[in-house]
Amino acid sequence: MEEITAAYVRRLLPRRDPMGHKGTFGKVLCVCGSVGFSGAAVFAGRAAVRTGSGLVYLGVPEPVWPVAAMKCDEVMPFPLPSEEGKLSPLAEEAIRQRAGGCDAVLVGCGLGRSPGCDGLVRRLLDLPRPLVLDADGINALSGHMDALSRRRDRITVLTPHEGEFVRAGGDLSPGRERAAADFAREHGVYLVLKGPGTIAAAPDGRCMRNPTGNCGMAKGGSGDVLAGMLVSLLGLGLPPMDACCAAVWLHGRAGDLAARQVGLWGMTPSDLLDRIPAALREVTE
């Protein structure tokens, strides 16, 4: 299996237009968070900004909005209807309206689980924009994987860890590489199977392994950073497999820089965020 390298990522990333403006570099929408999981939404939104998005909108349940607004200076959080601290089905219209003006959408980081919230995620599968499903955005499909058939002609990226992958019907018995490739082909999605040696797989059979990253990244919130980076690159217009490969390499490289500077034990997802610019500089300048 081919490995993702710095030279490969350098070829994938576009030159940043010196005459561009904030609308040039992608508008993305992150639909994330619930009471008790506000950090997931903040990490995702801030990661999208750090990865180059011109405009980042962050839709969160209404009780989470004051926290997100306090923590996000560059992101634009807005409140959505909620029930019991999670997104309400009544949030659908507002999400669709905001998504209509964006280039890519992320759903799932820290959403939590409820019948209303899970049903909302499944109804949003017909959004026409490239869609990243992470965490509870993936868990909402458990037992309903047939719903992905609605996205056969649209760009869809799933970013599960192994537990979420199995809940979504994935079979790890053939090994991670074969399992990721089979799942991507069967469901017509791009798959980022997270873990040591993260695998990026495409529906056409392409499969690549990421060598960057370390065990210091094994902390809650690291996956939310990756999801935000990925939706940012999709919003910039990268082809989906290119966006997946670039995001996982940059995410892991930021983690390696953090480990070198603050150590494996004490590094945090915030340390990853702070080092995304340095990781990007290595392959863009």
Automatic annotation (TrEMBL):
<dbReference type="InterPro" id="IPR000631">
    <property type="entry name" value="CARKD"/>
</dbReference>
<dbReference type="Pfam" id="PF01256">
    <property type="entry name" value="Carb_kinase"/>
</dbReference>
<keyword id="KW-0547">Nucleotide-binding</keyword>
<comment type="similarity">
    <text>Belongs to the NnrD/CARKD family.</text>
</comment>
<dbReference type="GO" id="GO:0005524">
    <property type="term" value="F:ATP binding"/>
</dbReference>
<feature type="binding site">
    <location>
        <begin position="194"/>
        <end position="198"/>
    </location>
    <ligand>
        <name>AMP</name>
    </ligand>
</feature>
<keyword id="KW-0067">ATP-binding</keyword>
<dbReference type="InterPro" id="IPR029056">
    <property type="entry name" value="Ribokinase-like"/>
</dbReference>
<dbReference type="InterPro" id="IPR017953">
    <property type="entry name" value="Carbohydrate_kinase_pred_CS"/>
</dbReference>
<protein>
    <recommendedName>
        <fullName>ADP-dependent (S)-NAD(P)H-hydrate dehydratase</fullName>
        <ecNumber>4.2.1.136</ecNumber>
    </recommendedName>
</protein>
<keyword id="KW-0521">NADP</keyword>
<feature type="domain" description="YjeF C-terminal">
    <location>
        <begin position="5"/>
        <end position="283"/>
    </location>
</feature>
<dbReference type="GO" id="GO:0110051">
    <property type="term" value="P:metabolite repair"/>
</dbReference>
<feature type="binding site">
    <location>
        <position position="223"/>
    </location>
    <ligand>
        <name>AMP</name>
    </ligand>
</feature>
<dbReference type="GO" id="GO:0046496">
    <property type="term" value="P:nicotinamide nucleotide metabolic process"/>
</dbReference>
<feature type="binding site">
    <location>
        <position position="161"/>
    </location>
    <ligand>
        <name>(6S)-NADPHX</name>
    </ligand>
</feature>
<keyword id="KW-0520">NAD</keyword>
<dbReference type="GO" id="GO:0052856">
    <property type="term" value="F:NAD(P)HX epimerase activity"/>
</dbReference>
<feature type="binding site">
    <location>
        <position position="224"/>
    </location>
    <ligand>
        <name>(6S)-NADPHX</name>
    </ligand>
</feature>
<feature type="binding site">
    <location>
        <position position="40"/>
    </location>
    <ligand>
        <name>(6S)-NADPHX</name>
    </ligand>
</feature>
<dbReference type="GO" id="GO:0052855">
    <property type="term" value="F:ADP-dependent NAD(P)H-hydrate dehydratase activity"/>
</dbReference>
<comment type="function">
    <text>Catalyzes the dehydration of the S-form of NAD(P)HX at the expense of ADP, which is converted to AMP. Together with NAD(P)HX epimerase, which catalyzes the epimerization of the S- and R-forms, the enzyme allows the repair of both epimers of NAD(P)HX, a damaged form of NAD(P)H that is a result of enzymatic or heat-dependent hydration.</text>
</comment>
<keyword id="KW-0456">Lyase</keyword>
<comment type="subunit">
    <text>Homotetramer.</text>
</comment>
<feature type="binding site">
    <location>
        <position position="110"/>
    </location>
    <ligand>
        <name>(6S)-NADPHX</name>
    </ligand>
</feature>
